[in-house]
Design brief:
Pfam families: ILV_EDD_C, ILVD_EDD_N. The protein has 615 residues and is of the alpha/beta class. The radius of gyration is 24 Å and the shape is globular. The chain starts with a helix and ends in a 27-residue tail after the last helix. Helix 7 links the parallel strand 3 and strand 4. It contains 21 helices and 15 strands. The strands form three sheets. Strands 7, 8, 9, 10, 11, 12, 13, 14 and 15 form a nine-stranded mixed β-sheet that branches. Strands 2-1-3-4 form a four-stranded parallel β-sheet, sandwiched between helices. The C terminus is likely disordered. Helix 7 runs parallel beside helix 14, helix 8 packs antiparallel against helix 9 and helix 8 packs across helix 19.
Length: 615
């Protein structure tokens, strides 16, 4: 039980709503778990194929059915800074497994793409689809049924959600997620943003822009701003799928390696062969999902998780809605200020007390379920710690989280929050539903009422901006306002352009049905608008000059047009035929969800074992 009655009420309604799907899910994973290790029932030919490439010791152990075998799912590639450190992990894991009498094998590699590389490019079209490709690829690897538990090596945007969906699809297997950690701090994020805006204005050239970007993204590890990647790590820890204190330790350090070895040994200790069997499907229940949402709000986390958390929960038979997320936002205090919520990065957050401090503050306030099952084997209070390296440099020791924040401007206490409510909010009105991240937007900029300027593509906006045609219209004397409405435009390029307009004194907002991040910082962005233009949603009936009101305080999204007139308009459906080919997009047409345009994504149930983001 939590101390806060409202948390209990929201958790109870999720549990009741989910019962028709959660109960059959639990029955399936319990039945599968009761079968025991599958290797003992494989034919000799099957088993020989399964360990043909192993060394003599591992072969001897795998030939029986009493040695736990750990499946490694890795998203390693050496182009992505966040995933490059995973190159060393399989050997670390195999050696740690041998030390405790177990074995470990890489079961599957999964694709890992970086939105930072593809945003604004054609490859961006594959990004959200990649989440379910990752879930499928993981399922293929685990389908050999050679494993008693699995560890998941992934960090970034769609990768951890995809891995989580797969881990819950194989919910009878214990699961531990092993992160790589953030890169060390480079060029401050606000300075990087300043150079981007100067480039958008034509005041600096590409050489200076690339120099700034390279100084920001400069080494191995996760990007240090608090976007989806670092929100993923927060979620895995607060939901009990990490070992305590492991989220934000830098790569290639003795502590990082010690945490990896420890996670390996813990995963082998919680298989059905031992006395602490802890299947992933029981760790992630309604309470863990609520804990994840509360953590997201308390840290001002990524808007992308208004899609991903819904799908992750659905993989465990749990029905989470945007309304649940919004209601939890209303009662969760904002305790962290990490860019784009503030000037600090995740290294500053970790140094100020990090996850241990945050979890303790939320527990003491009664805003988290403490009595959850975790991969660590204890309740969530065991995560209110900080992890350190032992004196011998080989293992991890844990101490209580600091009683005081190391930097109250970055991480504060529950009785002195930066805001009394969380960073994400649902918008509702005659344009449908949308999501907005208000924690990064100054209070005086959270309400925009302005004429619309329609774009069907982010490149259209860039062309109009360069030509001086994207300037908002004069509504009344001394007030210049504008609302950019984008249909199926992911719009990452829109943020610096709208930031320029805002700095010039215009009051602007972005309204889009594109599947994109809300890490827009200072510009209010109503994103993931649904119903979408492609399905004839109201956003397809908006015309240039219509007055739109985005109210991030009251949670409304309205076009101020008579409803009868709006209904009578013919929807302007976007032509997305040009999006179906090139840069691998045609390959996705072969898959169960192939051929769907990006705009249809949120309206379907994927066949990869997870529900999409329909709310």
């Amino acid at each position: 039980m939590t101390a806060d009655r409202r948390i209990e009420e929201i958790t109870s309604r999720i549990r009741e709503r989910s019962a028709p799907t959660r109960e059959p899910y639990l029955a399936r994973i319990r039945a599968k778990g009761a079968e025991g290790p599958k290797r003992s029932t494989l034919t000799c030919g099957n088993l020989a194929h399964g360990f043909a490439a192993c060394g003599p010791l591992d072969k001897d152990r795998l030939a029986g059915d009493q040695t736990p075998n750990l499946g490694i799912i890795t998203a390693y590639n050496d182009m992505l800074s966040a995933h490059q450190p995973f190159e060393r992990y399989p050997e670390l894991i195999r050696e740690a497994a041998r030390q405790v009498g177990g074995t470990a094998q890489v079961a599957s590699g999964v694709p890992a793409m970086c939105d930072g590389v593809t945003q604004g490019q054609t490859g961006m079209e594959l990004s959200l689809f990649s989440r379910d490709v990752i879930a499928m690829a993981t399922a293929v690897g685990l389908s050999h049924d050679m494993f008693d538990a699995a560890v998941y090596l992934g960090v970034c945007d769609k990768i951890v959600p995809g891995l989580t969906i797969a881990a819950l699809t194989f919910g009878h297997l214990p699961a531990i997620f092993i992160p790589a950690g953030p890169m060390t701090s480079g060029l401050p994020n606000d300075e990087k943003s300043r150079i981007r805006q100067l480039y958008a204005e034509g005041k600096v050239g590409r050489e200076e822009l690339l120099k700034a970007e390279s100084a920001s993204y400069h080494g191995p590890g996760t990007c240090t701003f608090y976007g989806t990647a670092n929100s993923n790590q927060m979620l895995m820890e607060i939901m009990g799928l990490h070992t305590p204190g492991s989220s934000f330790v830098n790569p290639n350090t003795p502590l990082r390696d010690a945490l990896t070895r420890e996670a390996t040994k813990r995963a082998l200790a919680i298989t059905a062969l031992g006395n602490e069997y802890t299947p992933a499907g029981l760790v992630v229940d309604e309470r863990a999902v609520v804990n994840g949402v509360v953590g997201l709000h308390a840290t001002g986390g990524s808007t992308n998780h208004t899609m991903h958390l819904v799908a992750m929960a659905a993989a465990a038979g749990i029905k989470l809605t945007w309304q649940d997320i919004s209601d939890l936002s209303d009662i969760t205090p904002l305790l962290a200020r990490v860019y784009p919520n503030g000037l600090a990065d995740v290294n500053h957050f970790n140094a100020a007390g990090g996850m241990g401090f945050l979890i303790r503050e939320l527990l003491d306030r009664g805003l988290l379920h403490e009595d959850v099952r975790t991969a660590w084997g204890q309740g969530l209070r065991a995560y209110a710690i900080e992890a350190k390296l032992s004196s011998d440099g080989e293992s991890v020791v844990r101490h209580d989280a600091p009683k005081e924040s190391g930097d109250p401007k970055v991480l504060t206490t529950a009785d002195k929050p930066f805001s009394n409510n969380g960073g994400l909010r649902m918008l509702k009105g005659n344009l449908g539903k949308a999501v907005i991240k208000v924690s990064a937007v100054k209070p005086e900029r959270r309400i925009v009422e302005a004429p619309a300027k329609i774009f069907h593509d982010q490149n259209e906006l860039k062309i109009a901006f360069d030509a001086g045609e994207a300037r908002p219209r004069l509504r009344r004397r001394r007030e210049v306002s504008g609302t950019e409405v984008e249909r199926h435009a992911g719009a990452p390029q829109a943020h610096p352009l709208l930031g320029v307009l805002q700095d010039r004194g215009h009051k602007v907002a972005l309204v889009t049905d594109g599947r994109m991040s809300g890490a827009s910082g200072k510009v209010p962005a109503a994103i993931h608008v649904t119903p979408e233009a492609k399905t004839g949603g109201p956003i397809a009936r908006v015309q240039d000059g219509d007055i739109i009101r985005v109210d991030g305080e009251m949670g409304t999204l309205e076009v101020l047009v008579d409803q009868a007139e709006l209904d009578a308009r013919t929807p302007e459906l976007p032509d997305l035929s040009g999006n179906e080919f090139g840069m691998g997009r045609e390959a996705l047409r072969r898959l169960p969800f192939g051929g769907r345009r990006r705009g249809e994504w949120g309206e379907r149930v994927l066949r990869a074992g997870a529900a999409a983001s329909r709310c």
